Amino acid sequence: MPQKTVVEVNNLKKTYYMPGGMSQNVLKGVSFQIEEGEFVAIMGHSGSGKSTLMNTLGCLDRPTSGTYLLDGKEISKLSDEELALVRGRTLGFVFQNFNLLMKRTIADNVSLPLLYQGISKTQMYTRAKAMLEKVGLAGYENRIPNQLSGGMQQRVAIARALINNPKIILADEPTGNLDSQTSDEIMTFFQSLNKQGITIILVTHEPDVAMYAKRLIRIADGVVEYDGSVKEYMERQHV
Ligand code: ADP
Ligand code: MG
Q: Is pLDDT larger for residue 116 or for residue 224?
């Protein structure tokens, strides 16, 4: 299968400007390419800019400078409407705290990304139901998030991320609030999604979680400190 680059960042920089004239250079020139079908873990110390990088990759935030091609499109050249469209079609998001609407049903949460796409309520429900089945939550459509365990809530979030058939899943510390057994279950699920061809980009600070990925990008001092095989990196750490 020919390789297709789905993410390409070049010399990405991000500076946060604070009130009072203070500023912080968080990303100081980050460059890498990710091919379709990769499973990449992004690691780095707390505060190293992992979430900043993920928010940029997710087009939730714009970089201070540098270029970002998402699925071949330079995102800085897109209008807000075009960007929203590309995002919606290409990306699925999973967060540490699940980000579910606590007062809405599980089915409503899963079908949320389908809103404003001209899809009927019945269709939305049917698609949510099918997706819930895929993540092992058949029958939970009409519950609310609080009635589910943390691991199940994260699976709801994964179902929501998958509902638009994204090419790429961006997951920022998706197992950060889960015990180790539940973490393993969630990571095994990500692995099976990756085997189906979905590109996965995952932020974690846990080596055990990163080991599910194939490639590791380590961020330190605002730049890429390591980019290569996860296994080789971990083996090197243990010498
Ligand atoms: P990580 O996810 O690796 O822990 P972050 O990307 O969240 O790191 O944060 C990197 C640095 O940028 C931290 O020092 C953080 O305080 C700062 N930071 C993050 N977001 C903002 C923001 N919106 N405004 C100002 N500073 C921020
Ligand atoms: Mg973070």
A: 224
- Which of 15, 16, 45 to mutate to test ligand 1, by most ligand atoms within 8 A of the CB atom? 16
CATH number of 5-238: 3.40.50.300
- pTM equals 0.95
- What lines the ligand 1 site, CB under 6 Å? 16, 18, 24, 26, 44, 46-52
Nearest-CA residue for ligand 1 atom 23 is 16
d(CA 177, CA 85): 30
Is pLDDT of 239 > 70? no
Percent of the chain residues topping a pLDDT of 90: 90
| 172-193 average pLDDT score | 96
Residue 56's nearest CA partner among 43, 68, 38 is: 68
CA–CA separation, 197 and 35 (whole Å): 11
Average pLDDT over residues 150-154: 96
* Residues 150/157, Cβ–Cβ less than 8 Å: no
Rounded to the nearest 10°, the torsion over CA 101, 93, 229, 67 is: -140
- Domain parsing of the chain, residue ranges: 5-238
Rounded Cα distance between 105 and 229, Å, is 40
Residues, Cβ < 5 Å to ion ligand 2:
50-51
The ligand minimizing its distance to the Cα of 17 is 1
Ligand 1 atom at shortest distance from the alpha carbon of 173? 2
Q: How much distance in Å is there from the Cα of 164 to the middle of ligand 2?
A: 25
